[in-house]
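TICKET: design request
STATUS: open
ATTACHED STRUCTURE:
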């Protein structure tokens, strides 16, 4: 029996980890414009193709031989890539977290009879899957997700390293944050409502409003209270607010010595080298999900916690593992026809069937990504 063919769009921090994982079970090809990133995949049984992923005519042609597409590009490229995949009539599992509403593509995906799983990372991603599972088994009153990826060693001045697309990190600091309170959607600026939260094995972190609920606002209208907050080391919010309020994250052009530039482009150029992990530097992912409501007529609370570190034996980053393996688990479900809902499918849909949920949890566990669960 021939192995199914999967193409991974993007060979960056997460894309290359997903390609290696999928290559254990599939015939995998990785696409990227960066030759250095592609060379890192040599010797892992992965075919590589250098290609500009913004050239959609060429991309449409390249997709044709494949059974499934896995997307791992920066957010600003994600929506258009998903459009191209749909037009090509291919199923897709994606982690690009594009800012546009994915349901704008729902009719097109259904017309092409394809499955497009969006936002399938750690959060959004696994958090949605967990909520989707419990939403079908209890009446939920509240959902809270706190999540962050941080360097193990705090280093002045930023005490932060970008463990996914750095330009998407900046978007977190400027995109208005939406949450649901008493069945009403509330919108606040990013970085608002800071709180100090203790995590065993980590210490005290600072949480703040970010726009991580995404599709849940649309798909879970029955839940009256939902919020997602990002975690950083205490003190980070203040310098981020200063940069933002001064205009360093602005996309509006300003003129400097007769040249028009976007301030965010200059900021990115200066910050990204500072945010890059050094060789051998370790990081970790921390997440806490709390779900409260009524189950079988009884008040019930569930708490899921994750504390995952860089894998020392391989040097694989925790954020790449926790994000990438959630996506590759979903890729198995779609490829095997176990999840075959058509149209745009945010990850909460993956949690609805108990066998799919169990498969993902066990798939992650097999790769030493362990979610601890407390029930009360």
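STATUS: resolved
RESOLUTION: sequence designed for all positions
ATTACHED SEQUENCE:
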């Amino acid at each position: 029996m021939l192995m199914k063919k999967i193409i991974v769009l993007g060979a960056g921090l997460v894309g290359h980890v997903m390609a290696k994982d999928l290559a254990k079970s599939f015939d995998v090809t990785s696409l990227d414009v960066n030759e250095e990133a592609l060379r890192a995949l040599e010797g892992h049984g992965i075919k590589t193709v250098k290609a500009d992923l913004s050239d959609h005519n060429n991309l449409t042609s390249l997709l044709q031989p494949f059974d499934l597409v896995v997307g791992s590009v920066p957010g600003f490229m994600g929506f258009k890539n998903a459009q191209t995949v749909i037009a090509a009539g291919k199923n897709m599992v994606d982690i690009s977290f594009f800012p546009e509403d994915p349901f704008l593509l729902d009719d097109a995906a259904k017309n092409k009879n394809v499955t497009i799983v969006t936002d399938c990372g750690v959060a959004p991603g696994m958090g949605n899957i967990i909520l989707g599972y419990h939403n079908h088994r209890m009446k939920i009153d509240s959902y809270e997700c706190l999540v962050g990826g941080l360097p193990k060693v705090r280093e002045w001045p930023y005490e932060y390293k970008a463990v996914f697309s750095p330009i998407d990190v900046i978007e977190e600091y400027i995109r208005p944050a939406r949450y649901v309170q008493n069945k009403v959607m509330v919108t606040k600026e990013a970085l608002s409502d800071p709180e100090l939260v203790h995590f065993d094995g980590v210490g005290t972190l600072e949480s703040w409003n970010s726009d991580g609920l995404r599709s849940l606002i649309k798909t879970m209208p029955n839940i009256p209270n939902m919020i997602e907050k990002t975690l950083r080391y205490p003190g980070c919010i203040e310098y981020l607010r200063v940069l933002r309020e001064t205009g360093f994250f602005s996309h509006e052009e300003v003129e400097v010595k007769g040249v028009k530039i976007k301030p965010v482009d200059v900021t990115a150029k200066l910050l990204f080298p500072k945010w890059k992990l050094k060789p051998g530097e370790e990081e970790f992912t921390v997440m806490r999900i709390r779900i409260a409501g009524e189950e079988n007529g009884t008040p019930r609370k569930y708490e899921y916690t994750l504390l995952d570190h860089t894998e020392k034996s391989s040097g694989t980053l925790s954020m790449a593992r926790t994000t990438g393996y959630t996506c590759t688990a979903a890729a198995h479900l779609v490829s095997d026809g176990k999840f075959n809902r058509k149209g745009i499918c945010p990850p909460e849909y993956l949690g609805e069937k108990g066998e799919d949920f169990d498969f993902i949890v066990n798939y992650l566990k097999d790769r030493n990504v362990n979610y601890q669960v407390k029930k009360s």
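CLOSING REMARK: The domain at 126-309 is CATH 3.30.360.10 (Dihydrodipicolinate Reductase; domain 2). The mean pLDDT is 95.
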